[in-house]
Every structure is written in structure tokens, then in C-alpha cells.
Amino acid sequence: MSGRKPTPDVLGDVLIRTGLSGRTPDDEAAKRHDVMPSGINEKPFKLTSYIQSDLNDEADMAVVRLKKKVGKLTKSMLVEEALRICLADPVGSGLEQALRERNRK
What we know:
The protein is mostly helical. It has helices spanning 10-18, 25-31, 53-70, 75-88, 95-104.
């Protein structure tokens, strides 16, 4: 028998989240060994966005440089922490000013 992971039930998950299935997310989560109870260690939300290729290259290089200093690091971790910092203090982080300048172009 192989160690193949089961195929995710994407449509079922969508139906549960929207309330169309008649089941609740907690009912489904209780059956799965890979899902923690809500609020303890929530499953990450997938975010897809499009960025310039040079920014992507810079992010890749930052991951390589920072891994040497901080240990385990992925591009997702880098982006998540950068978002937390910028959203916590839009003015102090320079986010607000950068967005203003970008909109003037």
C-alpha cells in the first residue's frame, strides 16, 4: 500500500463554508486528523496575487539571505510577516506613502 495522501474535497469544503451542505465546518473538521479545532492552529488561507517578476526575484533572494540569519523560512512566511508589519502600521512602515506615490503615476 502506498503512502499517497487522499485527494482534497475542494467542492465539499466550499459548500460547507457557504452553508449550502447542511453540515458545519466543525462536523467535518472533527473527522479529519490533519485539521486542528478552530482558533488553535488554523489552516492557512491561500492568497493568490500577481507581482512584477523583479519583485518576485527580490523576494527569492531575501529568503535565501534571511534563511542564514533566522533559520527555516519560506517565501510565504516572508510575505505573511511583511503584510503583518505593513498592516499593523501603514504610516510607519511606509506603506501608505508608497501607495500614494504608486497612484500618482
